[in-house]
Amino acid sequence: MRRGARLTRREFSTGFAAAALAGPARAQARKARVGMNQNAADLPYFIALEMGHFRDEGLDVELINFKSTTEMMAPLGTGGIDVGGGGATAALYNAVGRGLKLRLVADKASAITPEYSPLMLLVRKALTDSGAVKSVADLKGRKFGNISPGGSGDSLTNELMKQAGLGFRDIEPVYLPPPQLAAAFENGAIDASIMTEPFSSVLVKRGVAKLWARCGDVYPGMQVAAIYYGKSFLEDAPVGQRFMNAYIRASRVYNDALADGKFAGAKGEAIIAILAKYTEQTNLQLIRDATPHGLNPDGAVLTPSLVKDFNFFRERGLIEARVEPGDVIDNSFAEKAAKALGPYRKG
Predict the structure, then answer these.
(1) Tell me, what's the pLDDT at 148?
(2) In a shared domain, residues 99 and 237
């Protein structure tokens, strides 16, 4: 899919719930540009487009694919895009401390319940089969794969190693994009790794890796990725609120699709079809077998996790700017939308 491609357009419609949240219908939709990575964590965007939630809020949403969260930072700060998303990294906190106008406003992927985990901890199966790795203590000094430095994955690794009285300092980190991490497992270049779906499921099925733990088992309530609002939505809060109204409605549909640790709920097959369409995934069974990420149906980010990770970054000397988590977290948009919608009841 080419960068900047518009993914869908639907006829504008209004509904009772949307009217209650957004007020009178608007004659012309307001353009909203949203940065994404075209993966499962973007599902609420896809749902909101397919089900008309953005149109109900008077928004004409364009999804723009970025290779990484880092690429989104500059356009978020200048108003080139309105919304982004990704992990709350040390680099992000430093950028806000230096003046970047950006806030974490909603959950994008979390371990709000243990059975739905955005990240998996894998160990090379040859090591577990041989008995070389029987416990967390046996991971000391080994090559441990992760997606990027100074992010939530490092904090998760630290939490895992703490189980054996160790810490992040006791492993050798190797940072690679998910496809390259998978290849590194295949050729034995890494011993363990934090992996995302569907790579983790594929590696386990191939007999290359063993699922050691889900992040929710090691780090309950972990905030892995969040929705970012940039300069434009922070300065035009009513429009930012309309986007959030649609996002929370879609997040609740997402939760309706979950059951027994899979997309096995009442709306599971419909959501599988939407995810396959927008990610161009032709293997529907791969999606059915994968472990979905958790997502707060009320939208708010899990502040205790973000504070814990921030303190871990600061202890490692990664926070260079004068900034605190409270300077970056803003749950007010999500709280207002959830209040208007009322308590979530699984459909």
Answers:
(1) 86
(2) yes
